[in-house]
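User: I'm putting together notes for a lab meeting next week and I want to include a structural view of one of the chains we've been expressing. I don't have a solved structure, so I'd like a prediction I can at least talk through. The sequence is below, exactly as it appears in our construct file.
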Amino acid sequence: MTDYPQLCMIIDGERITTPGHRETFTVVNPATGEPLGELPLADAADLDRALETAQKGFKIWRNSTPQERAAVLSGAARLMVERADDLARIATMEQGKTFAEAKIELMMNVGLFNFYAGEAQRIYGRTLVRPAGFRSTVTYEPVGPVAAFSPWNFPLGNPGRKLGAPIAAGCSVVMKSAEETPASAIGVLQCLYDAGLPKEVAQAVFGVPDQVSRHLLGSPIIRKLSFTGSTVIGKHLAKLAAEDMKRTTMELGGHGPVLVFDDVDVDQVLDTVVPQKYRNAGQVCVAPTRYIVQDGIYDRFVAGFTERAKTIVVGNGLDAGTQMGPMANPRRPDAMERLIGDAVTRGAKLHTGGERIGNRGFFYAPSVISDVPLDAEIMNEEPFGPVAILNRFGSEESMVTEANRLPYGLAAYMWTRDDRRQRRLQREIETGMLGINTPMIGGADAPFGGVKWSGHGHEDGAEGVHACLVLKAVHES
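Assistant: Thanks for the context. Below is the predicted structure for the 477-residue chain, given as structure tokens.
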């Protein structure tokens, strides 16, 4: 079995493992509550060094050829495949998700890196039609050093997104991943180094989030911010970035509506949506959360959802047979208790769950609540946990109104056999991504991002690379 690695930062190729005068953060296994290691946190001098190195790295990497960038990305993808079991096991140890889910997450990285390897060679400009003797061209150039902040819920996938696009575009990166899941992020970065990425091009730092973000975004060296996390923090970082007119890509919170119409096969839908709800213990930004169910099938839907939720096997993600692991940190079970408790107090029905499991780790039971009033906290605040909210609706109009009620618009889902309704609601539902009769809303070649309070800009797809580029129009005579 893979041992948990010694934790470090990486600046200018140096693995900083000894705390020295630095503060440290204790990384904990969420399945046991036991410490895995001590993570050194960056001080101001570390961050300055990372910035200076990123500046040097940008000068190197912006002049690399598309083929060189592609070779590094595709080489890193091959190494991730070779190291898949070790990387997935580390991710499970520090984040809690099942080993199978961690491997799927890693393979999504592999697909993304391979796609970006091709996209690095498809950064095309254009020549404009002009009279004889004149020439006008439009070209793309890398934006500059990127500050990339990623959360803990996808400890392999989020760093992959933050690193892949800038590297494909010719940028350097200072990455600050979540302190709860550092070894996963370092493992992804190490694959890039081992595939030939110059050490100056990507740095990995950890620290007190507000201190790190203020320091990095306060530097003129950083020209772009890429952030995945909560809407509250995203708004704060956007204000910091605006002080220096830095470009931003913001993938923020959601509260995914799921419209289920009464023309569907209820059992078939439930067999698909229930496992998706409890994937990663519900700690997914695009998680289906608010089930907006039509009258005719509501009672059957609630009963079937509850029955299936009760059978989910909860345990250590490394144990065979586990279907849902613990929550990632002690804050999340506390949040579940608060939100579900408030809903029940306001009149919601609790069908299963609503409680912690065991006295070790951060386990919380798969939960189902129904008939939840709109003023309950959980109807307005992203729960980010293993709870499904089921409510009854009559008309299509009322269902769409509820889907669009909140200021979030990251992902939405719809289940119906009516082709005309599918086309009609594609336009009416306010969301960045919509799944129709499927929970699958992503892919390496598909843009990933939201609208309204769920952010702006996109990752993945050609859009992910273009988010790290700037346009230049050149006119000659």
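A couple of points you could mention at the meeting. The mean pLDDT is 97. The CA atoms of residues 343 and 376 lie 5 Å apart.

User: Perfect, that's what I needed.
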